[in-house]
Amino acid sequence: MLAAGGEQAVRIRDIARRAGVAEPSIYHFFGDRNGLIEAAQEVRYGRDQTDLFDVFDAAVSVCPSQEAFVEVVRRTLVAVFDPARAPKRMTRVSALGASEQRSALRARLAEQQWEANRRLGATFTVAQGRGFVAADRDPHAIAAWIVGMVTGRVLIELGDPGFDPAGWDRIATTATLAALGIDDGNLNNT
To answer: What does the DSSP 8-state code read for residue 121?
Structure first.
């Protein structure tokens, strides 16, 4: 209902009917309509993010070289930047917007994001230990920056950006490799 019509479309009666439960059950578990909306926004925010991190972590764990690591980073970014993922980015931004006046939701989204950043940062820490990421880089700061950059891609997905989004993708990929301490033109000089 949130995706189809925003918060104004959320009706307890309709949700109870669609879920096959009595209305009082919803109030029991969520307190009120606002509690239900906050719970839904929290789920919407985190959906799909950790799945990508799991795939990335598994691929990085078997990289035999920095060149292979760079290829995994590139492939992952191509998948993440895929225009088909634009609605998922917009959903995340929508959930963030919903947290503006809801401090409890904002705190839960922050916890969720810090855990996601920690997981991605742990993958970069492993890569750093194997010499794939420059030793002077903070893997967790890189993880947070990448998540922010990817979420920010929604700004060019609002409508015609006036340029080819592939240019944004190339810049973002080069910047990601630079953040990892990898010179795109000279992979062995981190």
So the answer is: H
Q: Is the CB of residue 20 less than 8 Å from the CB of residue 41?
A: no
User: Helix, strand or coil for residue 183?
Assistant: strand
Rg (CA), the chain: 20
HSE-up of residue 156 (Cα within 13 Å, Cβ side): 19
The structural domains of the chain, with segments of one domain joined by +, span 48-179
CB neighbourhood size of 62 (10 A): 8
Q: Which amino acid is located at 113 in the chain?
A: Q
pTM: 0.84
Domain at 48-179: CATH code? 1.10.357.10
94-153 pLDDT, tens digit per residue, is: 999 999 999 999 999 999 999 999 999 999 999 999 999 999 999 999 999 999 999 999
The amino acid at residue 34 is: N
Q: Which residue in 80, 178, 74, 186 sits closest to 133, CA to CA?
A: 178
CA distances to 21, 26, 32, 36, 150 from 15, rounded to whole Å, are: 8, 9, 13, 10, 32
Give the HSE-up count for residue 176: Cα atoms under 13 Å, Cβ half-sphere. 26
